[in-house]
Every structure is written in structure tokens, then in C-alpha cells.
Amino acid sequence: MTEQARPAATTSVSSVCELVSVATGPAAPLAARPRGTGTPLSLPPTTEGGCAVVTGASSGIGTALAERLAARGYPLVVVARREDRLRALAERLTARHGVPVEVEAVDLGDRGGRRELAERLAEREVAVLCANAGFATYGELARLDAEREHLQVEVNVTAVHELTLAVLPGMVRRRRGAILITGSTAGNQPGPLNATYAASKAFANTFAESLHAELRGTGVSCTLLAPGPVRTEFAQVAELSKVDAVLPKRLSVSCERTADLALAALERGEGRVVPGLFAKLLATGGRHAPRALLGPLLRTAYRRVM
Length: 306
Ligand SMILES: NC(=O)c1ccc[n+]([C@@H]2O[C@H](COP(=O)([O-])OP(=O)(O)OC[C@H]3O[C@@H](n4cnc5c(N)ncnc54)[C@H](OP(=O)(O)O)[C@@H]3O)[C@@H](O)[C@H]2O)c1
Description:
alpha/beta, 7-stranded parallel sheet, two-stranded parallel ribbon, binds NADP nicotinamide-adenine-dinucleotide phosphate
């Protein structure tokens, strides 16, 4: 390091704090300080126009998010591969809540289809984006199907990135919008026998929390939904045959509860929501336990549910 560079490195903690407080302004008294980004009620009102986009709406958490957004009056765009399910959902939500629901039967792992979807969304007034679609694989990486591992990165990482990049400029221009990114507690920790998924969710977690901080003051918010176990088709898709036998039901939460907590957090402009006590314990353990301990522990745990 050069002599010139050194003074910055030796800046005192108090002067760093001063710089931070100059940059962010004086702290409001606790009672008056809104939770989250300081953008309370950042879920834009439906009266202002704009639609809500939910990826992975054909089952689980995505269906529950779509149902709740429709109940709040948002016109919806629902995205997944299983068109029959999306159409049935659209009919049900329109009949029940009187909102228009557009079906986008798109494979988010397919570059061309995904890009075209991103282009269509970039031209619309998107008020809410729930980037939720995702799946996991479990097993020794060297033995897993390489194509499916690539696909997992496309869906869990690239699609989240591309769709956010498509809608964010419009949201920032309008100074209005909310983004919910579904990460996972798995993204806080190493994931032996679940390496691609854990790494993909580390991206989702960090991306969402980075945007949350970056967007402060823009009128747009970004919230990370980082669930632990949720009762959906997730385990079945991941071929986790023993999970129901090993994991007591009370440790997982329902997708309805997950969606309720997620949208409440989005509304308050919070940075992160972790639904349920067990997931909070997992999140704390994953973030703070020594890596040398976590790796072997999680390897044993995942072996038991496979
Ligand atoms: N359930 C859990 O325990 C848990 C825990 C932590 C995080 N999560 C995360 O929560 C999110 C939702 O999962 P879930 O639990 O609700 O599972 P789920 O019931 O299996 O739903 C996954 C959704 O993602 C969609 N999807 C998967 N691959 C896709 C592709 N190539 N293109 C488009 N859509 C695709 C599926 O639709 P199609 O199959 O119709 O395409 C489905 O709608 C995921 O990101 C997952 O990683 C779940």
C-alpha cells in the first residue's frame, strides 16, 4: 500500500460515523422513525395504476402472493411454465376479486423467452414485482445433472436479475414501486449437497438487501423474503423424499402465512422478512455460526432428508 493510501485506512471509527451521518442525515427520534427504508406504505396504491407481476405463481408461495395482491385490487401478470394452472388461477382471481389477470406461460430458464418477457415488462407500468420462481436440487454436485444445475442458476439468479433490471428504471422514474425477491435462509450459509441452490439464494439474498439500501429515498423499495421450510411443492420438485418424515410439520409455515408476512413487510418497506421462529433460528445460525462447524453439520442434516 502506498503512503498516500494509508490515511484513509487509518480514519477513526468516529470520523467514519460522522461521514455516515452527514450522508444519511440526522437520525430521527426512534418513536418517529418509520420501520424499514423510511418509505412506509411503499406498496403503491392500486388507485395509481400499474400492475403486480408474480413469478412462480402456479403453486406455493407465488399462488398465495398472487391471491393476496388480487384481493388488494392489483391487476396481475402471473408467470410460470404450467399454463393450465395459471389460467385456472387467473379465472378464479378475476371471478373473486374483479381484477384482470394476464397469463405469461414462460420458462424462466429459457433465455429467449425470459428476455422477451423482460422486454414486455419494461414497457409496462409495473407497480409490484414479486421475483419468486425458483427450485432446488439436492445431491453430490458431481453426480447431479449438469443441465438442471445450469437451469437452476438461470431461474434462481439470472431471471431475478433480468426481471428486476427490466422494471426498476420505470419504477425509479415514477418514484413508485415495490420489489419482493424470494431468497432463502439457505442463502446465508454453505449448502453441502445443495450447493447450486445455496449459492443461488446467496445471490438473491445479497441482491435484494443491496437494492434495499441503494433505493432509500427513491420511492421504490426492495424487500427480501428469506423463508425457511414452507409447505409447498418445493420438496417434491427437489425430490426430497424423506423431508416430511424427518421435519416435524410444526417447524414449517404455510405459504399463506408466508405471503401475508411478505406483503406486510413490503408494505412497510422493510429490508428482510424471515417467516416463522424456526426459520429465524436457521437464519441466525446460518449467519453467525462458524463456517467450520456449519459445513459438516448441514451435510449430515441434508443427508437425512434426501
Ligand atoms: N418451500 C420452501 O421450503 C422454500 C424455502 C425457502 C425458499 N423457497 C423459495 O420460494 C420460492 C417459491 O417456491 P415454493 O416453495 O412456492 O415452491 P413451489 O411450490 O415448487 O413453486 C415454485 C414455483 O416456481 C416456478 N418455476 C420453477 N421453475 C420455473 C421455470 N423454469 N420457469 C418459470 N417458473 C418456474 C414453478 O412453476 P412451474 O413449475 O409451473 O414453472 C412454481 O410456480 C422459490 O424461489 C424457492 O426457492 C422455498
